[in-house]
Amino acid sequence: MDYMDIFGVWLSVFLTLSIFSYLYKDNPFYKAAEHLYIGISAGYVAVISFWQQIQPNLFGRLWPRIDVNADMGIFKSAWYFVYDVLNWVSTLGGWLDRSIFPANGIKGFDEISWIYVIPFILGIFMLLRLIPTLGWLARWAIAYIVGMAAGLRFYGFLNSDVLMQVKAATVDFSGDWWSIFNGLILLVGTLSGLVYFFFSKEQTGIVGKVSKVGIYFLMIKFGASFGFAVMGRISLLIGRFDDLIVSNSPENYYATMWLLSAMIILLGIWAFLDKPKPEDLAS
């Protein structure tokens, strides 16, 4: 095992113990790990989104690969002049390597998709949020994103949560007795759950009894979902404990033992220095 692998093991142990230190109370170790995790996650998502979505699907459709020997015309030549300007800006005047905007266009598509000029402009509007005098232009992009997402979500929920639920609640009496029994349970659970959320009528009598059955189904569903979530978190916790045990081996120079001891000592010193003074308590 080389030194970089050992450094990675020690860093992993340190961050794990830093997060676990929150069980004591909020402290500098936990804050450092929390900020590092959020910062790296945001940066990683931004980089992945750019190279997997923006660069190939947006820039690649606006400036696809072209044949430099073909006659492009004045308008197309001007359009690819914009491409060269963007490349000059992204490479800081040619000082960096040409990776975002390769020479002669981006591979993947054959023709220019002019409709993608609209999301390109809206993306620029989103960046103008950083300029106070032009920040109002970002409202157009936000309105488009919210409206489009609402429409797509509505269609998705209509298919997954309504139509599929209606289809699942139908009972196929041509099947075996076990499938019929399961279908009846789904039908009763769906109808009783809907009755429980029907607040236009007082839940008394038959309606109250049916809604009470719906409560039982809802509690079973919530309990199963919560138990599944807890089991998933427990499996992650077991995995971290297993890594801490493996990292406490001679090959890793007993990383867990040394880091845990150092953190306990430093947290003790920090707790002693962070103790409020009598005059602060009096004020």
Strand content: under 5%
Strand count, sense and barrel status of the largest sheet are: none
Helix amount, in percent? over 70%
Categorize the overall geometry.
extended
Low-pLDDT sequence parts: none
The number of helical runs is: 9
**Cα gyration radius (Å):** 30 Å
Report how far apart the termini are. Answer: 56 Å
Find the count of extended strands (DSSP E, 2+ residues).
Answer: 0
Structural class determined from secondary elements: mainly alpha
Mean pLDDT: 90
Order of helices and strands: HHHHHHHHH
Notable traits:
283 residues; mainly alpha; 71% helix
Fold topology:
Layout: H1 3-20, H2 28-62, H3 74-90, H4 117-127, H5 138-169, H6 177-196, H7 205-247, H8 255-273, H9 278-282
Helix pairs in contact: 1-2, 1-7, 1-8, 4-5, 6-7
Quick description:
The chain is mainly alpha-helical and 283 residues long. The chain is built from 9 helices and no strands. The model has no long low-confidence stretch (mean pLDDT 90).
Can you tell me about this structure?
With 283 residues, the protein is mostly helical. It has nine helices and no strands. It has helices spanning 3-20, 28-62, 74-90, 117-127, 138-169, 177-196, 205-247, 255-273, 278-282. The radius of gyration is 30 Å and the shape is extended. The mean pLDDT is 90.
